[in-house]
Amino acid sequence: NGNMDPGYPKLVSIGFGGMSGTISAALSVPAFRRRRETVYFFKRGGLVQKYSYKQEPPKSCSKTPSKQYSIYNVRTRTARQAVYLSNEINIKLKWKGFPSTITSALSLPNTKKPDGYDYFVFSKAKYYNVKIDADQPTLTSTLTSATQQDTSKDWYKCP
Which residues pair with 38 in a beta bridge? Predict the structure, then answer.
């Protein structure tokens, strides 16, 4: 409706207790199999914090969706409860090969992927395909000048 809900926008630290610092990007990762639903908050200075949710059993619903979306279907809705905010992680020290300056992040629906999404991180004018392995995102290939893809060329179709 174009109207902002009362009380919004809120500070991230209110919704995600314990969060501090300047956030430059957030990568939302849905629960899949044994992986918990997680949000990675990328911060200035090459830091990241991981916020995970405790997964509860799915709630059953007898209603069928009134609208079918062609891009993707929501598999199951689960009740969620925040469970864990990691300490700050220094990307250069802990995530080998990952760009330390993240300016944006994106979870893009893709029905061909097992968990239903493609993941991307952007670092200034470059972007990187990301896969989610175990406890952290990793690049789909080693960080080299060949794997750094040009954002303006590939996303905006600029020469």
Answer: 29, 52
